[in-house]
Design a protein that fits this description.
By secondary structure, the chain is an alpha+beta fold. It contains 10 helices and 17 strands. Strands 8-7-9-15-10 form a 5-stranded antiparallel beta sheet. A 4-stranded antiparallel beta sheet has the order 1-2-6-3, covered by helices on one side. Strands 4-5 form a two-stranded antiparallel ribbon. β7 and β8 form a beta hairpin. α5 (142-158) crosses α9 (352-375) and α8 runs antiparallel to α9. The chain is globular and about 80 Å long. The model has no long low-confidence stretch (mean pLDDT 96). Bound molecules: ligand EPS. Residues 12, 50, 52, 84, 138-140, 142-143, 322, 324, 345-348 line the site of ligand EPS.
Length: 402
């Protein structure tokens, strides 16, 4: 990200999570209850989550950056308290433990879970207790990202840009997609316990999550993030790090457990002839699309040359199954190097529906970043003037053809 930056802090069972988001324009109406908390709630949902989500009630406490309902252009500080922390005050204490205290709570974790950051973390940071690693490596951190993404989404909404997502498969069960996605994608997806647009597939998924849970196993899946009404011309082909496709893919890959990202046709495009991949260009007299050029298809997923075409951005991400398994995988005891089964922590069986909401947040942050890059980001009114100037320029260009 070039114009927006954000940083999160916090451990899964620590006091809470912090987020500082910088680079949003001044003068943007923002209320955490209206604009942020609904996304926090959406991230907590989904069939297959663990007991932790029954303990928490993620809600943002705003610390800075907003006055009288509008952003100031200063860093937006957000706090999220972990309710579960009260059960971890000894294990997660900042101070050295009291020798007379609770030794059970301080028991070291020494059986790294394959797939989690446990082993690489203890080796890299010279720690001996995998709790020192897993607390920060946990996907609990994504709650703070969703808070930042919700603020970015609020900016996008000012320009009519929407960000939605839906789950296309979980395990080997694939949703049959409607010909056209619903206008309000999130309303439709959120109505399903697994955020799928196919209720038959969703029922089968729920049964398979129950089965995986019984067997002590976990499930991954695939989700699509769709960003609509993006203006043509965000991002650039000029340099490798200005290309919006790279920026989106990097942001998606940074989400916990994401192992693959595709844009538009993605890997499928590599199997087809070029004539069945590229989206023909047609004249489009009239107002829609604003660029004046229509595409009968959107196999490019809204990006050509790393630049938005004005068609929806379609970003697909693959999540591996969660690595905490009650069906324990072989591991090694860090204390003596002996063969042992991996540790088990409370965890989720499947969190693909939640990951899709995190995907929306990351996409919103990247697109908001590119929007600010193109239209300037000091104030919302300045952005709007520049956006309208650009729209007027596109209209003039188009009218010269008519
Ligand atoms: C998560 C909170 C965590 C996990 C999950 C995501 O809470 P706890 O560890 O107390 O159960 O449920 O994290 C993982 C699955 C993981 O492997 O790190 C959350 O808020 O999303």
């Amino acid at each position: 990200m070039r114009r927006i930056s954000f940083r999160t802090a916090g451990e899964s069972h620590g006091r809470g999570l912090l987020a500082i988001l910088e680079g949003l324009p001044a003068g943007m109406p923002l209320s955490t209850e209206r604009d942020v908390d609904p996304d926090m709630k959406r991230r907590m949902a989904g069939y297959g989550r663990g007991r932790r989500m029954q303990i928490e009630a993620d809600r943002i406490e705003l610390i800075s950056g907003v006055r009288l309902g509008e952003t100031l252009g200063s860093p937006i500080g957000m706090l999220l308290w972990n309710r579960d922390w009260k059960n971890w005050t000894t294990a997660m204490s900042h101070a050295r433990p009291d020798p007379e205290g609770n030794p059970k709570a301080l028991r070291r974790m020494h059986l790294p879970r394959p797939g989690h950051a446990d082993l690489v973390g203890v080796l890299k940071y010279d720690r001996h207790d995998t709790r020192d690693i897993l607390e920060r490596a946990s996907a609990r951190e994504t709650a703070a990202r969703v808070a930042c993404g919700a603020v970015a989404r609020t900016l996008l909404r000012e320009f009519g840009i929407t960000v939605g997502s839906h789950v296309t498969s979980i395990g080997d069960i694939e949703a049959t997609l409607p010909r056209e996605l619903p206008a309000d994608l999130n309303a439709a997806a959120d109505a399903s316990p697994v955020r799928m647009l196919d209720s038959d597939a969703a029922d089968r998924v729920i049964a398979s999550i129950d089965r995986a849970k019984e067997e002590g196993d976990t499930l991954g899946g695939i989700f699509d993030v769709v960003v609509r009404h993006v203006p043509v011309g965000l991002g650039s082909y000029i340099s490798w790090d200005t290309k919006l496709d790279g920026r989106l893919a990097g942001a998606m890959m940074s989400i916990h457990a994401i192992k693959g990202v595709e844009l538009g046709l993605g890997f499928e495009g590599a199997r087809r002839l070029g004539s069945r991949v590229h989206d023909p260009i047609q004249p489009a007299p009239g107002d829609r699309p604003p660029s004046g050029y229509a595409r009968p298809s959107n196999r490019a997923g809204g990006l050509e040359g790393g630049v938005t075409t004005g068609e929806p951005l379609v970003i697909r991400a693959a999540m591996k199954p969660i690595s905490t398994l009650r069906k324990r995988l072989p591991s090694v005891d860090l204390r003596d190097g002996s063969v042992a089964d991996a540790a088990v922590e409370r965890s989720d069986v499947c969190s693909v529906p939640a990951a899709a909401v995190v995907g929306e947040a990351m996409a919103a942050l990247v697109v908001a970043d590119a929007l600010i890059e193109k239209f300037g980001g000091d104030s919302l009114s300045e952005m709007r003037r520049n956006y309208e100037g650009y729209t007027a320029y596109l209209r003039d260009r188009r009218q010269r053809h008519e």
